[in-house]
Amino acid sequence: MSVLSSISLLSDAKYFDDKNSKFNELKENLDHKTTKKRLSAMKRLIAMMTLGRDVSSFFPDVVKNVIVDNTEIKKLVYMFLTHYAEDNQELALLAINTLQKDLGSSNQRVRANALRAMSSISIKVVIPLVMIALNNAVRDTSSYVRKAAACAVPKVWRTDPSKKPELVEMIAELLSNTEPNVLGASIFAFNQVCPERLDLLHIHFRKICALLADFDYFGQAVTLKVLTRYARTQFLTPFRKKQAGKDDDDSDDDGGFDADEPFYDNDEDEDEKKDPDEYNMDPDHRLLIRSATILLNSADSAVITGVCSLMFSIAPIHEARQCAPAIARHLSNYREIQYVVLTNVSTMAAKRPSMFRQYVKMFFVYFDDPAFIRTLKLDILAHLASDGTIGPILLELFSYTHHYDGDFVNQAIRTIGRCAMTIPDVAERCLHMLLRLVSTSTETVVAQAISVIRQLLQRDPKSHVSIIKRMAKLLFKVKIAMARTALVWIVGEYREMIPKVAPDCLRQLAKTFKEEDVEVKLQVLNLAVKLYLSNPKETSLLFKYIMDLSKNDQNFDVRDRARMVRSLFFKKKGEALNDPSTELKTKTKMLMKRCFLWAKPVPETENPFKARETLTLGSLSHVVQHSVQGYQALPEFPTVAPDRSVREPPRSALDEVADRRRAKASRKYSNVDDFYKSSSDSDSDEDTDSSDSDEDEDTSDSDEEDKPKQKRVKKTKDDDHGNDEDSDSSSSGSDSDSNSDSDSDSDSEDDNDKPQVRTNNTLSQPQPAAQTNVGGLLNLLDDDDDDQPVTTNPAPSAPSQQPDIFASLTFEDNFIGGGRPATNSSSDSKDQVQLFDKIRMPRHGSKGVLLKESLGEGMEVQYAFIRQDSIYSKTMSVVELTFLSKVEVRDIHMTSVDVKQMEVRKFDKIPVLHAHQSTTANLHIDFKGSERKLKFSIGTTDRTYPVTLAPKAGDLLKSHPMSISAFDTARKRLTGMQETSFVTSKATSTEDLASKITKFVDIAVLSLNPSNPKLFRLSAHHRHDPSQLVLISVDEASGGKYNVTINCDDMLFSGSLSDYLHKAIGK
User: Fold this and answer.
1) CB–CB of 981/1058 below 8 Å?
2) Could you tell me the end-to-end alpha-carbon distance of the chain, in angstroms, rounded to an integer?
């Protein structure tokens, strides 16, 4: 198929050759009788249109071909109409009739293409017709057409915004769909037309979360953005109180480079213990986070970015850390995608650096990284610097100083300074590293290093006097203006620490003052003023000399500053001492002294991408660092929890009937509880039940007004009788209260007597369960039943009826409400589906090697069968392929598949896999219930590697929970040749052996039967055919050995599974 597709692409490439484009020939072919000629002419026109040539002159000839029945020609004609309809509105109207006719076609693709073309014609005259077509399309039986309708809604809104109310109603109807492709397109239309109408999502929120994994990549990316905004308005903040205004989570991070704590943490109980201040999260909030976490395994970078934005914005800090491995996996993608991913990482690392500190090496710069990628990686490394990661980061940054790109070297040096300012403990180390650059590197590197050293010295100058002297000596070696400016500033700022060196530096600078740059001259002038104010005796002559040089300088900035300083520090000839201007000059001189000699503030670290921190992750505004048109900022979390009942689905009449029946059943059980309770509790409870019964029966009477009159009469009699029973029960309860005050002797005598049944259908004082009259209990259970007539004088029931009474009672009824005979304690568990919870089921089966590293030329491929249903079909097995490579591999894809009666869904193409990295992809296969091998090839840009995937017998099964009674019944049926067994000693107990079996077979471990707690039952069925059961029993044998018995509908498969398990357990 790949060869045929390549040939097809090569054959279509000829249409992009302008040399063969002849307009007259194209017009003739568009009117030609044969379909082949018309198709060739349309392909030529679309190719010319793609190249940017104006082919609108062919519009009349193209419109004629709308009536052609060929689907491929129709599609090309629709594309042409969409592109040129706005410039040729009158001619475009000629195609409307044909488009309307195609909307009624039996082919769903023709209907969808016609609707897509019709909605793309941006002409207001056509909008009424498009609205009619949309009204029909949103209710179309084909999901493909409904998806096209959802995509057409934003186009109509952009053409005619006045139609927004009608379009919002259509969007509300489209959101009620359950097909993932339609629902994803509907959310896209919602986000374009009415993003402020979040109330439309209330009743569909849980459905969207449940189907989110089934959306296409585009739908998932759009839905994640919408759900992020929805969660910020409907849920409370999940962040701890002490971090409500600060997102940095360094307080609970150890800062280590190789942290031992698990990165993935799915235990909610542990999470709650870690964050005691975290609020009780809304279940819908938790549902959204879990649904989004599943998408972290997506192969699309836009989906990963959307998930990270959602988790970063609405998820607790410890759960947001799950995004880091997914982001690191996408750093090996194309450079444009890398840039977008790294912009998000930069913002997240600035607020929560602990998320990525374990993956700090993933952000080291590669030799082939472009400049914009290198800049972002340096910013991320500066954010990730901590006590545990600063070592490898500084070594990496120092190696960047030898890069060929001078701008990148300067950025690396500035990053070293940022690390030193972030972690004061390593400032000394960074200073010595920068001093090494000053003494050994080129002039540009020296200039940048001195500038950074100046900033570091301001933090603690008294501890680095020797470094200040060394900087003063460099003043006579460095020639770059920026570096000399920094050195002169250092000498003038810390003149008191070097009182003998500073005047000598001024003397040397006065000699070269005329040749210095303007920036250096201004700093020399400042140095002269500082030394004159602090040590006028030694520097007064130098000060006057510098002033004279500056007064006649060619640059006006230098001249103006020199004249201002002279006017303050020197008096004019003949100026009186008591002149008012003299006092003003004195005050100004004091101000100038404070200005020049005032201690400068310590510089703060500057983040070059600080503007991104306030913008939403994953948005275009976040990438370009400013708000663009259409940008929507994330709203703040509400202070009061909104009503969560708005997300409850609307209730129907059938739901209300079911609730009444459940309430009636619960009252029956509560009557049995009252029988076993104390007499004082019985009084109040029976009164309440009586009132409840009256209300419920009145409601049932109103519901059955349309029934025949005879039934109403019968119902009324039953109700009256039931009320009488309640009143008698109440009086019985009061009698019991009075009798409870009797002496202990009379009580003991009453305990030995059997309970008496009264003629008014009430029970006497409660007695032990073994002596209870069952007939009275039956009457209580049937007290509120409308279908059973109530007898006034019930006879005592036989003891054989006693198990039926307790068959419907729960655990609380049996043991809290008065007990139950021990002989029947396990009858319920046999009929219920319960699993053995002490054995944890693995996520996948045993792993294998599909392609060895030696055969793959540095690339290794491993595989494992994942124990989950495929998104394509429940009969398909999901195989997770793990690609590991020691060299860079590009364009990894699946080719040359030898199906042989199997159904295969290929894994998505992997664009690039960098060296010493790994990635995963899912392969979906329906083996049709057999163990036949799948042969295919894994291709790259220049090589293909043939591989063979052979499933084991345990990989073809799926766990099938069932009750113990159903298991025993099925096992009795599957005997004889359908049963195989083997004996093994490779286990310490039956539980250990059952746990080993779950590692090789996707099978359910049923709960134990109390009568035989050492017998383990395991059940599964064929993934391809669920009707074929596979039952495994594990029991003890003599001599420390264990029996494993397999019962299966397929005799051959039973033997194959037995051999496979015997060998696997033996290993």
Assistant:
1) yes
2) 42
- Closest by alpha carbon to 319, among 355, 368, 371, 363? 355
Torsion of CA 374, 378, 384, 385, to 10 degrees: 140
Does 932 share its domain with 1030?
Answer: no
Query: Do residues 362 and 393 make contact, with C-beta atoms less than 8 angstroms apart?
Result: no
Asked whether residue 1053 falls in the same domain as residue 997, the answer is yes
Domain of 972 in residue numbering reads as 955-1066
Question: What's the confidence (pLDDT) of residue 696?
Answer: 44
Give the residue from 951, 986, 1003 where a domain finishes: 951
Give the type of residue at 787.
Answer: D
The C-alpha angle 395, 396, 398, rounded to 5 degrees, equals 65
CA distance 876 to 893: 20
Residues 152 and 218 in one domain: no
**pLDDT score, position 695:** 43
φ, ψ (nearest 5 deg) of residue 582? -65, -40
- CATH of residue 180: 1.25.10
Cα–Cα nearest to 215, from 325, 314, 294: 294
Whether residues 960 and 1034 fall in one domain: yes
Q: Is residue 811 part of a domain?
A: no
- Give φ, ψ of 240 to 5 degrees: -70, 155
Q: What is the pLDDT of residue 246?
A: 43
How far, in Å, CA of 211 to CA of 220, rounded? Answer: 10
* Cα–Cα distance, 499 to 496 (Å, whole number): 5
pLDDT in the model for residue 310: 92
Residues 97 and 134 in one domain: no
Bridge partners of 418? none
Identify the segments of the chain with pLDDT beneath 70: 1-22, 240-279, 440-441, 570-585, 589, 602-603, 605, 651-658, 661, 664-831
SS3 890: strand
Instruction: Tell me how far CA of residue 1065 lies from CA of 73, 528, 985, 993, 995, in angstroms.
Output: 62, 88, 9, 8, 11
Residue 151 near residue 188 (C-beta atoms within 8 A): yes
The pLDDT tens digits of the residues spanning 379-409 come to 999 999 888 888 889 889 989 888 888 889 8
pLDDT value at residue 609: 85
Structural contact between residues 226 and 187, judged by C-beta atoms closer than 8 angstroms = yes
Q: How far is CA 569 from CA 530, 547, 587, in A?
A: 12, 11, 11
What's the token pair of residue 1010? 């109390």
Is the domain of 13 the same as that of 130?
A: no
Which residues, in sequence order, are CB contacts of 702 under 8 Å at separation 6+?
A: none
DSSP 3-state assignment of 622? Answer: helix
| pTM of the complete model | 0.56
- The domain total for the chain is 6
CA distances from 233 to 183, 418, 521, 636, 639 (A): 22, 37, 59, 7, 10
Pairing label, strands 1042-1048, 1004-1005: unpaired
CATH of the domain at 986: 3.30.310.10
Q: Which of 862, 658, 680 is nearest to 766 (CA)?
A: 680
| 205 and 326 fall within a common domain | yes
Query: Please, what's the b/e burial string for 975-985 (b: 16 or more CB within 10 A of its CB; e: otherwise)?
Result: eeebbbeeebe
State residue 716 phi and psi, 5-degree precision: -65, -40
Separation CA 473–CA 1044 (nearest Å): 86
- Model confidence pLDDT, tens digit, residues 769-801: 333 343 343 343 333 344 344 333 444 444 333
Instruction: Number of helices (H) and strands (E) in the chain: give both, helices first.
Output: 44, 15
pLDDT for the residue 543: 84
Indicate the SS3 state at residue 834: coil
**Is there a single domain that holds both residue 46 and residue 58?**
yes
How many angstroms separate the CA atoms of 544 and 288, rounded?
A: 75
Q: What is the pLDDT of residue 531?
A: 86
Tokens of 722: 């039931």
Distance, CA of 65 to CA of 29 (rounded, Å): 11
